[in-house]
């Protein structure tokens, strides 16, 4: 736990030090984007190697899609509430006709 805090503190101090150099900030942004891609890619390899996940991908995929859509709608609940308030009556009248 101490090592995690020390790494975080080192990052904070480094960020404070390089904040004056626009090229360093831009390079840091690119490194962060690259690190995120690597962090997304490596679990993808683990999923691809897991036979149980690959064999049940159709079931898992639908569940993941439902969870993702639900999370998006929950996150945008005000917007989705307005859209659904307008859209649902329109769809109901369109389907019933």
Written description of the protein model:
With 97 residues, the chain is mainly alpha-helical. The chain has 2 domains: 1-50; 56-97, no CATH class. The protein is 92% helix and 0% strand. The chain is built from 5 helices and no strands. It has helices at 2-18, 22-49, 51-55, 57-75, 77-96. The longest helix has 28 residues, at 22-49.
Short description:
The chain is an all-alpha fold and 97 residues long.
Radius of gyration: 22 Å
Q: Considering DSSP H and I runs of 4 or more, what fraction of the residues is helical?
A: over 70%
Quaternary state of the chains = single chain
Largest sheet: none
SS field, number of helical segments = 5
Structural classification: mainly alpha
Strand content: under 5%
End-to-end separation: 63 Å
Could you outline the blueprint of secondary structure elements for this entry?
Layout: H1 2-18, H2 22-49, H3 51-55, H4 57-75, H5 77-96
Quick tags:
single chain, 97 residues, mainly alpha, 2 domains, 0% strand, flat
């Amino acid at each position: 736990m101490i090592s995690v805090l020390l790494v975080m503190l080192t990052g904070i101090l480094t960020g404070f030090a390089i904040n004056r150099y626009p090229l360093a900030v831009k390079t840091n942004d690119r490194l962060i984007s690259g690190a995120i891609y690597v962090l997304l890619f490596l679990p993808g390899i683990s999923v691809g190697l897991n036979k149980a996940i690959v064999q049940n991908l159709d079931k898992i995929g639908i569940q993941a899609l439902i969870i993702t859509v639900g999370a998006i709608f929950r996150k945008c609940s005000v917007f989705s509430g307005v859209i659904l308030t307008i859209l649902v009556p329109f769809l109901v009248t369109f389907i019933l006709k």
